[in-house]
Write a structure and sequence with these properties.
Shape: globular
Distance between the termini: 36 Å
Structural class: alpha+beta
Order of helices and strands: EHEEEEEEEH
CATH architecture: 2-Layer Sandwich
Number of strands: 8
CATH superfamily: START domain
Strand content: 35-45%
Number of domains: 1
Number of helices: 2
Largest sheet: 8 strands, antiparallel
């Protein structure tokens, strides 16, 4: 299954790129290392006044920078209890969107957990949850990058 999200930042590409490259991984909100030295952050979404979230282990590849574009491969899985949580892999992309704007997007794919039963549940509900989580994650990254670029 595929998921994607895009956010526009009212900051020039060069500033956002500088913030992205300045400190490895700090553009991922709440990033920390656990006792096993894995990179851990939180993935979730807001449901009214409640936030539903889960800790995830993240793997981040080195950035590929080209003129007006930066790509970073990212994969994640649940930090614990991963049997019922899909592993996801994709690419974050930062693009210049004019002289004073940038966009950040994330396109990824995952296989629903628990094979056939997982696919049925995914089609009924979980894909919407995955989309909400990815949108929330990209929005939090955009906010973090914008604050670091100021």
């Amino acid at each position: 299954m595929d998921v994607s999200a895009t956010e526009t930042l009212n900051e020039p590409y060069a500033r956002i790129l500088e913030a992205l490259l300045a400190h490895s991984g700090t553009w991922l909100p709440g990033l920390a290392r656990d006792a096993s030295d894995r990179l851990i952050t939180e993935l979730g979404f807001g449901a009214g006044r409640t936030r539903i979230s889960r800790r995830i282990a993240v793997e981040v590849a080195p950035p590929t920078v080209r003129p007006g574009r930066c790509e970073i491969s990212v994969a994640w899985k649940a930090a614990e209890g991963s049997r019922l949580f899909p592993e996801l892999g994709g690419v974050f992309e930062l693009l210049a969107a004019g002289p004073a704007r940038s966009t950040i997007s994330f396109e990824a794919s995952y296989d629903p957990p628990v094979r056939a039963i997982g696919r049925l549940v995914d089609h009924a509900l979980l894909h919407r949850v995955a989309e909400a989580c990815v949108q929330d994650f990209v929005a939090r990254i955009a906010k973090e990058l914008a604050s670091q670029a100021e």
